[in-house]
Amino acid sequence: MNWKGKKYNLTQFHFHEPAEHLIDGVRYPLAIHLVHQTKNGEFLVIEVVAKEGRNSEPFDFLESFLPLKKGEEKIIDLSFDMNLNLPTNKNYFTYVGSLTTPPCNEDVRWIIFEQPILVSLEQVEMLKYLMPVKNYRDEQPVHGRKIEQSSF
Questions:
Q1: Residue 24 is part of a domain; what is its CATH number?
Q2: Number of folded domains in the chain?
């Protein structure tokens, strides 16, 4: 992905249950973090929040690679378009903050889509069953960060 003239490559994705960012005071049941990095190591993370609705085939594909043991990584050697897990409305919030997992590096560009995707209750429950307990960070103070609202 390109952001402000810099090329970021998707390095990994992971799930949080529930979502870590609140949108208009709402904490959605889960989120996908798409972690991108430049060749210099700069981070950009896209968060896609999800709410309960209908079954999502793209989400089924991703969930099929779970569970993972702590520290385990799996290579997905099948073709998959990650864009299928993005909302149709691409309006977003953005700010510079930190990673939400240790070492909590600062200077991370966050892009959080405003519109949640829909996944079934069964998919939320399956992810909840497969995820470690409390794999999200509680709401943090803004500390004067400028949060912008924009659209693609």
A1: 3.10.200.10
A2: 1
